[in-house]
Amino acid sequence: MTTQKWLLIGGALLALSALGNQQPDAPASPSTPVVVPVDASLQSSLQVVRQLAAQHKEAAAKLGPFYRAAADVVRRDDGKLGTTGQFRAGKIGADALYLQRTPLVGSVPGWGAAVDAVIIAAVGLEDKALDATSRAKLADALVAIADAAEGR
Amino acid sequence: MPNIPGDPKFSAWPDDHNELNQDGIVAAYNRGFIGAKDDPAARERLRSESMFGAMSDAAHANNWADSHAGKLVAAWVPLVKRFPRCLPGKAQQRGSCVVHSTRNAHLLLMTGDIVTGRIDEKTGKAEDWPEISPEGEANSILQTATWYWFRGSNGDGWSCSTAVNVAKNRIGAALCKNYPELGVDLTLCNGRNEGLYGGRQPPEAWVKLFSAHMIRESSYCESFEEVRDALGNGYGITTCGSEGYSSTRDENGVSARRGSWAHAMAFIGADDRAETKSKYGGPLVLVQNSWGQFNSGPRRVMGTDLEIPHGSFWARWADVRRREIIAISGFAGWPRRKLPDYGGSLAG
């Protein structure tokens, strides 16, 4: 099976099971670039993601949609991802479902730590409730990761 | 009215040293020791001081009435997965069943807060399992003594309503561990620690330290539906009553009524499945006793791979419905520790 097919399956699992609550009429991820205002404190963390993406363009481009979909799920979530800890658990599960047994495993050394640094810069490491403000910050950070991965 | 002995005088505890082994405890209750007494004034006070005196009102206000209709509510499972040795814990050594039931209700409430990710209403933070030693886990994590110190006498036996009132207003839960700053080791839930105070109250410094982990609300349950939904939504339930039960379980872990115990026991599960009601003529509740492994028989939950804890048994709702049943909520637990990371990525 091709990498593309695995990614499609992984993407479906991501939407259906890992981060949950997909609405039947949910909007698809935007196909055109969206300019997202990003907190200045994220920029240095994002720079590492951009550098990794530049070094591994093909793999990083395939990782980008994962984070864009995750941002979409976080924005639409009605409480299943109620805390940063629950988001962490969901992200770990979704990441595994998306990538396991694909050639993307290990394709961008340092990627996980770099992405985590962006998320930490956005919402910190305290296990706390995702209120409207922190939820928006988290979603924005995920979109910024997606943009960086796709070289935007 | 709850079916609890109304005699205001406690039966004499049958041991001068206030500590009995498991056989002695069972024999004492079978002989008529009154560990759980009725206190209508305490019940009325607790009800009037609660936001929702009736659990059904809380359920409707929070939009979870009938949320677990027709379901098996296995509320004990996350707790025993995390702390396999905490239930049944050590058998009570004196007539302190009320605080053992109160403690077990706190354990279920703490579990509900953690697994649902419920945010503490005052701190705004999620809560986590406390750090506890293996010996503390074997003593059921939370110390029974703190509440018992406020029973108002050096004797034994208490009322569920008064114990919950104390847990709400006087002193909170304490971990089973050593407290060198107070010069007291509370690792063991035993008769000695429970008897440190009673007729007189503990020092103010003790009360202050142990007031960090109190509950904030309570409601009375009078129907199976209230019990089922309260447990399903992560509340803890303590009960007082006079029904005794067989010390053997049937093939599905169900025990029949036998004898009379003036006793307090926590409810830690509910079974409202159609097949259960068909087999037993109605729904069941899972009762956690505080006499160690006092009973025997299968522990497998009908139709599942789950097991009920040692020292527990399923009881027909029809057999327990007259008990005084109090659901507790709003436990000020232990704050969740910082996340180590966000899990990285398989990508690298």
Give an overview in words.
The complex is a heterodimer of chains A (152) and B (348). Chain A is 63% helix and 0% strand. Chain A has 152 residues and is mainly alpha-helical. Chain A has one domain (3-23, 38-149). Chain A is globular. The relative contact order of chain A is 0.22. Residues 1-36 of chain A have low confidence and may be disordered. Chain B is 29% helix and 16% strand. In chain B, strands 1, 5, 6, 7, 8, 9 and 10 form a 7-stranded antiparallel beta sheet that branches. Chain B has a two-stranded antiparallel ribbon with strand order 2-11. A two-stranded antiparallel sheet of chain B has the order 3-4. Chain B has helices at residues 22-30, 40-49, 55-61, 77-82, 97-115, 134-138, 145-148, 160-169, 191-194, 204-209, 224-232, 274-280, 317-320, and strands at residues 72-73, 127-128, 178-179, 184-185, 217-221, 236-245, 257-271, 284-288, 312-316, 324-329, 334-335. The longest helix of chain B has 19 residues, at 97-115. In chain B, a hairpin with a 4-residue loop joins strand 3 and strand 4. Chain B has one domain (22-335): Cysteine proteinases (Cathepsin B, Chain A, Alpha-Beta Complex), CATH 3.90.70. Chain B is globular. By secondary structure, chain B is α+β, with helices and mostly antiparallel strands. Chain B has 13 helices and 11 strands. The A-B interface holds A 59, 63, 82-88, 91-92, 95-96, 99-100, 104-113, 115-116, 119-120, 125-129 and B 117, 119, 124-126, 128, 336-348.
User: CATH homologous superfamily of chain B?
Assistant: Cysteine proteinases
Chains forming the largest contact: A-B, 34 and 19 residues
Largest sheet of chain A: none
Integer average pLDDT of chain B? 92
Please bin the fraction of helical residues of chain A. Answer: 55-70%
Shape of chain A: globular
For this entry, what is the oligomeric state of its chains?
A: heterodimer
Order of helices and strands of chain B: HHHEHHEHHHEEHHEHEEHEEHEE
β-strand number of chain B: 11
